[in-house]
Amino acid sequence: MRTQLVLRRTAVAATMVLACSAGLVLSGGSAQAAAAEPDGTINHSCGPAINVNSTTSRHVVTPAPVGGATIRLEAGRSSRYGTTYWAHLLKARKGSSVWMDWSDDGGHNWHQCGPYSVDGSQGAHDRWTWGVNWVGGRKFRACAHQGYTHCTIWK
Hints:
5-stranded mixed beta sheet; 5-stranded antiparallel beta sheet
């Protein structure tokens, strides 16, 4: 009787080890499948969410037209975070939206800061995003939707 109990426990333990091993193999396959998924948005993050009104040395990095409005990737200097980027939509209709994509892998995957709607809170026809700090290799692009969606090139 005692030998049967020991054999049964051993068999259960072996079954559990095999099941766990199979689970690891399956989860490894899932990780490989996830790595092969299409490029795209990682999350909706504005990083440190820097208030762009506190930046200095502001300048336009790259502008682009979008449905009669202008979308611009802008940059400035934050005393705490250094070089900072944000998206700015100008001369837009109420309800249009603006966001900034930022990527640490050259634009294959990105964080999306926004979207933010033109609602009169930053001027009747303007809206901008929070700022995100630049670190080595990080890329940015400004995007907007006003009738259709358009983004600047990655910078």
